[in-house]
Amino acid sequence: MSTINDVAEKAGVSVTTVSRVLNNRGYISEKTREKVYRTMEELNYQPNEIARSLLRKQSNIIGLIIPDISHPFFGEFANAAEYYAYQNGCKLLLCNSQLDPAKEREYIEMMKRHRVDGIIMGSHTLDVEVYRNLPYPVVTLDRQIEGIPFVASDNERGGELAAQLLIDKGCRKLAHICGNLQLDLLANRRTSGFERVASENGATFMTLQTNMDVFDQQEYERIISGLLTEHPDIDGVFATSDIIAAFVIKWCRKLGKQVPGQVRIVGYDDVRMASWATPGITTVKQPIREMGRLAVELIRKQMDEEDFSMENLLPVTLVERETT
């Protein structure tokens, strides 16, 4: 089996140069880099990742635990985090908790065994002490835990923008469909922002929560069908995700309600499908790509003992399309 010394000798470079190529560290000319890679391929050299991580005391692997990879927001966030991790010389270890505490705990233990450099936590089913006691850098997504930096959009401002747009469009009986507010998430601030602006403008409104499984699409169907049949005079809906907004469009069609003629709809996230839907969904845009970049950066800053901000609220913008 070939060694790093064999690669260096055949390529005509130093062992240090081969090591820099492997670890993506320091300046290496593209010509030298290609020569080293070509030699590794010729010798069928496979670096021992575990040995390298022990030697460096880092693995160049960042863990990401999310609740549901099939949800467009988390899929797009994972895509952005992987891109920026790779740009920083790291790989992303992706785990899908499916809101199962036992599964989330098992994934955390697995990441300890793999000596990950840090974890981005997008799934939050365990007690906060579990996250606080992890032996490596942690960043939370959309959840504030004392002592751990978080990344989130300005959820409260998003709720305000949604309510104000619906009111400015002439809506007078509003509904807000959100996740379960018992979950300790910063996304709950979308609701508080929406309700405050609706109250200040004298609009009639109601808030409907999902059950604890906030991704249960059958629950969306139940809530939305009940809302539109029991309250036929609802003329404005703010959904806490673009997926829920799409279900509102579906039920308006089933019940013969025109969008936006009779019901105006605002979503949240601005995932790609929001612009693909017919009609296109007006939505509050989270800067998903920037959130992924910042999460990776916060892991790196903690590793390198650089200064970083604990609270990272990114601005939101309103993207108006055909549903309003």
TrEMBL record:
Residues 2-56 form the HTH lacI-type domain. It comes from the Bacteria. Gene3D superfamilies: 3.40.50.2300, lambda repressor-like DNA-binding domains. InterPro entries: HTH_LacI, LacI/GalR-like_sensor, Lambda_DNA-bd_dom_sf, Peripla_BP_I. One of its GO terms (molecular function) is DNA-binding transcription factor activity. This is LacI family transcriptional regulator. It comes from Cohnella candidum. The keyword Membrane does not apply. Pfam families: LacI, Peripla_BP_3. Keywords: DNA-binding, Repressor, Transcription, Transcription regulation. Transmembrane segments: none annotated.
